[in-house]
Every structure is written in C-alpha cells, then in structure tokens.
Amino acid sequence: MKTILETLIERYPALSACSDDIMKAAEILVESFAADGKLLVAGNGGSAADSEHIVGEMMKTFKIQKTLREGYAESLIACDPEMGNVLRNHLQGALPAIALDGHIALSTAYLNDCEPLLCFAQQVNGYGREGDVFWGISTSGNSRNILYAAVAAKARGMKVIGLTGARENRLQKFSDVCIRVPETETYKVQELHLPVYHALCLMVEKHFFG
After folding, report:
1. If you ran DSSP here, which 8-state letter would residue 70 be given?
2. What is the pTM of this model?
3. Domains plus CATH for the chain?
4. Cα–Cα distance, 207 to 64 (Å, whole number)
C-alpha cells in the first residue's frame, strides 16, 4: 500500500500534505473489510458521482483481479453444476460497498414523507452496523446531509472517513480521519478527490487480492 501512496504523491505532489491521512483511511477500510464490514459512501452532485465511482471500483476488479472467496466456487457448483460453472467462471471478488445516493424509490419516499436532509442518515441507520465505514464526500465539508449521516454512523459504532477541500470544516469533528485536499474551489477540489479515492481503492485491493 505504501508504494501506491508514493506513486500518488509522485504524480500529484500537492497531495503530500494529505499522505498520512490517506494512509490512515486505507487502514480503516482494510480493518473493516477484514472483519466482514462494509462501506457506505455518500455525496452530493459531483460527489454523488464520485460515490458511485468508488463503489464500482470496490465491487468488481479495479486493477488487480479480484478472486472469489475460498470455497465459494465449489459451493456454486454444488448448488447447480451448469449455472454454478458459469458463475464460477465469470463472477469476481468484491469488497462490499453501497452508494447511498442511488436508491431512487427509497430516497424520494423519504424526501417526500420525512425530513429531506436526513435521507443519507436514514440509510446509515438501516444499513450500518458496528465496524462498518461511512465515507462522506463534501467539497466544503459542511454539507448538512453528510454531517447528519456522519453523526448517525458514529452513533452506530462505525468509523467515518471525510473527503473534503482544504478549509476547516464541520465534517472533521465527526471523522476518524478527514482527507482535506489542498484546494478550495469546488471543481479543483473534485479534481484532486479522484486520484485520492483511486489510490485508496488500489491500496485496499492490493491488500486483499495482491
């Protein structure tokens, strides 16, 4: 994982200020996944797209082939030889992750019937378990729906990773680690968020499948 981080800093020297926090975030993710935990990710606008992007990298092969868990291929064949063989040959390993922006029916029902700013928090309340991780992405670090979700996560016994811009922000208060990339303008913050989360996905993948 250290080599991946070093490569990131070599390509994006400005992120050297975040290197310790990036490593800490990777360690939090590894600890959770190793204990059969899962990752919940949320953001707004472009950060919602980033949330979906992270889940895509976690739930299938990113760079290193994610293999099935030991014994699972045999269980598939035992359930049904024909379909099990297809599944064995094409399924990939996965690191369990859910983007909270993607559940349209649930989200619109909650937004209509309840308190709109608590939509992500409601999903953390439903999906989250002690030992899971909530990863909140907010360029300002002050998005209220992300803050509510972070509080709900901490109360669940989850770890919280924040990914924000450079300014001091409220998400830091609830984060076990907050990666503050050294930009303040929204699109510039987002431009640095992508290499950070790509590196984190690579680091975790390397740990489990390398």
Report:
1. T
2. 0.96
3. 2-64+94-209 (3.40.50.10490)
4. 10
